[in-house]
């Protein structure tokens, strides 16, 4: 029976491994299909790539369908394993009387053997005394002992007969029950294997049908059809155009020039003038004129001059160029032409004008995309005020399309000016308008976050180490712990597992408009295992599967699990929770390898999954920012308003280690600030270090940073400021974890978030 349980679990793991392999194969085929769609769409062979793509996508779908069936089968096996365990427990209680019968016959057999030996001994003693001529008195005593031994031996013989009858009856019933359990077990295993074979067979049939369809599509694609498709897609008409008339103010000013934008190039030749009948009039003194001795086959030569890219010193020049191009588009029109001979001529003229219009639009969209993508490329911690193009913190989760969806303006209410805001003496900091700033969303009663589950009792604070030294380009990481493990592991105890959630918030604030705030929040989940658990995993042929459930997953935009270690059920209907389970053989191998590399460690951390949080603009930021600059040739006035937003966190927690870094150009000679800031003359940057910010702080976490800078080479250019902070015991996503099943317990549930690139512009 015990081996039956082991076999059931091993079969479940085998099917799970097969599902993992099929899923990986399906994803690879999907990737291959995308590769086919990216192949060249030029030439006569282009339609064949569509056939390859469709066939590969169908093949990927077949294998993904097999994954779904195998996952359903795994659920059935797991359900059977649970039923099997319950049935075995019930059977153990039912056969308790058989155990008593076994123990009874064992004790009776031992007593019978002793009584037999005593009887033989007493009988031999009596015979010896007779032969030696002992007295009658001694013979009588020996006879009494023999009689007593005979009665005892006889009684145990009777007891043994009774115990044997009961033992045989009980053992027969129990053996039949055991055999029935094993027969049912084998039948259930055969049913599972039959379902497994049927799923694989159905997939093979679908793959065969897809292959037959692919072969037929290839056979039905003839050379003539490919040539015909190319002619239909690339042809401009079936009749030869007779002439072309195009009058456009923009085209008149750009004759014989080449426009280059990336790989897009449009060449506009001199448009010939037409006579009243629509025929071409050759201009005088043009290179169209030729003498009889001139070689008409000589290629024409054109002089092309491409000007170098001008350095962009600001946004005004860029905006002016875009405005001019937009105006040019608006001025493009078709001038009335003389009598056009047919519709094909008019069609050619229209296409010519649309070609140029398309080019202008392409140029505008390219510049627009460039400006949007450059928003988060600034690095205020770099050597200059404009920063370098360093990337965001490393994450497997792909960045969202910028900008994010803006908030509705109807939900934004300007907050009142804090009553206790400090004021500077007259003459020190002046020139900054003190009007209200509509930079943060109003507090809505129906938007309060649900209470998060309290953190589990920390049995060990060393399993997930903290990193309080943060930078704007790095999020806190969970490292290998140090120190002795306080957890003692026993094979029958629930094994302790620690969990850590770490999130990074990246934000860009533009002016006082909340709708221009760009937010990206990513996170990762790490499991920590004590070193003693490795011995338990390696010594057990089938350790208990570690399963857990994530809650509040509806707030996550994307989840990327560690595919080598983690499995999930993609068919779950509940969008707010998601179940995961670990590949125990792969986990054991990983922990064993980590132990070999670092045998002195008490804990080993494993990155389980990464995710990206759905953001709601400025409402998702824990600290709202607005920055104001007033720059003159001799001074620069700066004010940074901030407001604590508890609604962005689950649950609300204090922001610690808050630092604000502002680059100031113009050769600062003196700085006055409230509160006091640190000026770094080498880097030309001012730094504020603030105490913890929370709803219990002054003005409920709202305040201002103000500074006045005296310059020797002004004016300053408003730069991007950067902010860093972190928070313990809270998350921006509100995601939580719960262990599922038995065999493990959650000893520590650690939550934290920190800033990635957190910046603000005026």
TrEMBL record:
SUPFAM superfamilies: BAR/IMD domain-like, Second domain of Mu2 adaptin subunit (ap50) of ap2 adaptor. Residues 494-762 form the MHD domain. Residues 1-226 form the F-BAR domain. Residues 383-484 are annotated as: Disordered. One of its GO terms (biological process) is clathrin-dependent endocytosis. InterPro entries: AH/BAR_dom_sf, AP2_Mu_C_sf, F_BAR_dom, FCH_dom, GMIP/FCHO2-like_FCH, MHD, Muniscin_C. GO terms for cellular component: clathrin-coated pit; clathrin-coated vesicle; plasma membrane; presynapse. Keywords: Coated pit, Coiled coil, Endocytosis, Membrane, Phosphoprotein. Residues 383-395, 454-477 have a biased composition (Low complexity). Signal peptide: none annotated. It is a peripheral membrane protein. PROSITE patterns: F_BAR, MHD. Residues 63-94 form a coiled coil. It is found in: Membrane, Clathrin-coated pit. It comes from the Eukaryota. Belongs to the FCHO family. This is FCH and mu domain containing endocytic adaptor 2.
């Amino acid at each position: 029976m015990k081996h039956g349980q082991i076999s059931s679990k091993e079969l479940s793991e085998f099917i799970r491994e097969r599902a993992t392999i099929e899923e990986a194969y399906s994803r690879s085929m999907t990737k291959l299909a995308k590769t086919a769609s990216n192949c060249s769409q030029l030439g006569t062979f282009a339609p064949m790539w569509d056939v390859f793509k469709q066939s590969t996508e169908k093949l990927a779908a077949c294998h993904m369908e097999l994954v779904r069936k195998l996952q359903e089968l795994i659920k059935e096996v797991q359900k059977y394993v649970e039923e099997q365990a319950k049935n075995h427990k019930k059977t153990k209680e039912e056969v308790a009387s058989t155990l008593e019968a076994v123990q009874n016959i064992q004790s009776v057999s031992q007593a019978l053997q002793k009584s037999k030996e005593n009887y033989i001994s007493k009988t031999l003693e009596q015979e010896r005394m007779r032969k030696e001529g002992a007295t009658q008195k001694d013979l009588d005593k020996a006879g009494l002992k023999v009689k007593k031994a005979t009665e005892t031996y006889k009684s145990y013989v009777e007891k043994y007969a009774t115990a044997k009858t009961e033992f045989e009856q009980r053992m027969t019933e129990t053996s039949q029950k055991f055999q029935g359990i094993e027969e049912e077990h084998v039948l259930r295993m055969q049913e599972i294997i039959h379902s497994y074979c049927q799923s694989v067979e159905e997939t093979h049939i679908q793959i065969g049908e897809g292959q037959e369809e692919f072969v037929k599509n290839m056979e039905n694609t003839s050379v003539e059809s490919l040539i015909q498709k190319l002619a239909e897609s690339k042809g401009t008409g079936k009749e030869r155009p007779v002439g072309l008339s195009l009058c456009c103010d923009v085209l008149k000013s750009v004759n014989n020039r080449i426009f280059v934008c990336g790989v897009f190039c449009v060449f506009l030749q001199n448009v010939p003038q037409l006579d009243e009948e629509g025929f071409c009039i050759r201009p005088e003194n043009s290179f169209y004129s030729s003498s009889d001795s001139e070689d008409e086959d000589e290629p024409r030569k054109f002089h092309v001059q491409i000007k170098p890219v001008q350095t962009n010193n600001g946004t005004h020049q860029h905006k002016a160029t875009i405005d001019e191009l937009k105006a040019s588009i608006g001025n493009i029109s078709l001038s009335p032409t003389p009598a056009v001979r047919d519709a094909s001529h008019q069609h050619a003229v229209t296409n010519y004008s649309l070609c140029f219009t398309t080019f202008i639009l392409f140029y505008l969209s390219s510049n627009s995309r460039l400006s949007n993508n450059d928003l988060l490329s600034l690095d205020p911690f770099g050597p200059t005020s404009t920063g370098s193009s360093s990337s965001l913190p490393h994450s497997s989760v792909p960045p969202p399309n910028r900008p994010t969806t803006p908030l509705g303006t109807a939900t934004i209410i300007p907050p009142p000016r804090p009553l206790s805001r400090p004021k500077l003496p007259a003459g020190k900091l002046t020139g900054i308008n003190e009007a209200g700033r509509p930079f943060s969303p109003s507090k809505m009663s129906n938007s309060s976050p649900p209470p998060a589950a309290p953190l589990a009792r920390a049995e060990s604070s060393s399993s997930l180490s903290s990193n309080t030294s943060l930078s704007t380009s790095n999020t806190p990481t969970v490292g290998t712990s140090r120190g002795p493990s306080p957890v003692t592991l026993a094979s029958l105890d629930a094994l302790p597992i620690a969990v850590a959630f770490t999130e990074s918030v990246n934000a860009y604030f533009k002016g006082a408009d909340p709708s221009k705030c760009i937010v990206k929040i990513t996170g990762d989940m790490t499991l920590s295992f004590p070193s003693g658990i490795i011995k338990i995993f390696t010594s057990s042929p089938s350790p208990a599967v570690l399963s857990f459930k994530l809650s509040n997953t509806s707030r996550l935009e994307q989840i990327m699990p560690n595919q080598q270690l983690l499995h999930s059920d993609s068919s779950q209907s509940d969008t707010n929770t998601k179940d995961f389970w670990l590949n125990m053989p792969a986990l054991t191998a990983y922990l064993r390898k980590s132990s070999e590399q670092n045998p002195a460690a008490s804990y080993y951390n494993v990155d389980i999954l990464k995710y990206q949080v759905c953001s709601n603009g400025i409402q998702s930021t824990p600290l709202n920012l607005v920055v104001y600059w007033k720059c003159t040739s001799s001074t620069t006035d700066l004010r940074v308003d901030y407001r604590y937003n508890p609604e962005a966190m689950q649950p609300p927690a204090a922001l610690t280690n808050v630092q604000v870094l502002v680059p100031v150009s113009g050769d600062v000679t003196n700085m006055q600030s409230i509160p006091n800031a640190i000026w770094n003359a080498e880097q030309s940057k001012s730094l504020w270090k603030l105490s913890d910010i929370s709803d219990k702080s002054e003005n409920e976490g709202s305040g201002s940073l103000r500074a006045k800078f005296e310059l020797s080479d002004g004016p300053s250019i408003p730069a991007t400021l950067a902010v860093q902070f972190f928070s313990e015991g809270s998350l921006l996503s509100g995601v939580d974890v719960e262990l599922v099943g038995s065999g493990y317990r959650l000893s520590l549930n650690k939550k934290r978030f920190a800033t990635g690139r957190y910046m603000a512009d005026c």
